[in-house]
Amino acid sequence: MKQLRNNVIRAGLEALYFTGAHHLLRPIFAGAGAIFMLHHVRPRRDGEFRPNRHLEVAPEFLRAMLVHLRSRDIDIVTMDESHRRLNERDFSRRFACFTFDDGYRDNRDFALPVMREFDAPFTVYVASDFAQGSGHLWWIALEIVIARASSIEVDIGGVATRLETVTPAAKQAAFDRLHDWLRGLPGSDDLAREINALCARHGVDEPAICREVCMSWDELEPFADDPLVNIGAHSVTHCNLAKQPAEIASQEMAVSRRRIEDVLQRPVAHLAYPYGDKFAAARANSASPRRPASRPR
Asked: What average pLDDT does this structure show over 83-98?
């Protein structure tokens, strides 16, 4: 279902582009600016089963976006500047703002060189457990489990369920079902328990995934020193804050901010709350007491 939705959206956007209708709609929908919400930037990977492909773009694609924005004379600004323009209703020039979630190493290796070509500032939202090397990137772990397996046996809602995962299509269907089930579990502990069991059953070293794909604190320090880079908070564990009790949600935000500030020795003024589910408490418990600014994943 999720893949069908993505295909429908993609087809609709392509139809707008190839018919030229996007030119007619621009005055209505262009708005004052746009925030590009990115994750991975890395060379395109081969393989039919890549269920997390929506979280990645190639460096060439990022460069093409920046070329397009510059050709349209659109300002590429920091999150602080976009906040100022929106707050002061300064819409004299259109703008774009770039953000990257989670703190992936490829942001340093592939995104930063491209952003430097265009002198384009950007913000990376770091989940502090990921930088600590102890985080759980369960959506990547799930992809690896299914990629390796010919079938998956799991208890879903008290019902023993067997999912065939031989073909790429079957793997995608299994991923969609298990992803939605895990996302829907009542607490982060429930999700961790189930993904840990899946990884143990299929020989996947889940803790190693974090260390493999995310920047450590030692890597983030020189990365954050680049004048184009700003670091924001993305919670401690990357849990769904909308599902947490207020006390836990507040702790996730406050501790994440404090850890980043302690290590990088710079203020953290922005919060991006994981998953983008509606979460009003992000304003009241913003990472900045001076300027409550939150942005969903």
From this structure: 95
DSSP per-residue codes, the chain: -HHHHHHHHHHHHHHHHHHTHHHHHHHHH--SEEEEEE-EE-PPPP-S--TTGGGEE-HHHHHHHHHHHHHTT-EE--HHHHHHHHHTT--SS-EEEEEEEE-BHHIIIIIHHHHHHTT--EEEEE-HHHHHT----HHHHHHHHHHH-SEEEEEETTEEEEEE-SSHHHHHHHHHHHHHHHHHSSSHHHHHHHHHHHHHHTT--HHHHHHHHB--HHHHHHHHTSTTEEEEE--SS---GGGS-HHHHHHHHHHHHHHHHHHH-S----EEEGGG---THHHHT-S-SSS--EEE-
Look at 32 and 107; give whichever has higher pLDDT.
Answer: 107
What's the pLDDT at 32? 87
Q: Rounded to an integer, what distance in angstroms lies between the CA atom of residue 128 and that of residue 233?
A: 8
Q: Which residue has the tokens 């089963």?
A: 49
Amino acid identity of 185?
Answer: L
Phi/psi of residue 123, each to 5°?
-120, 135
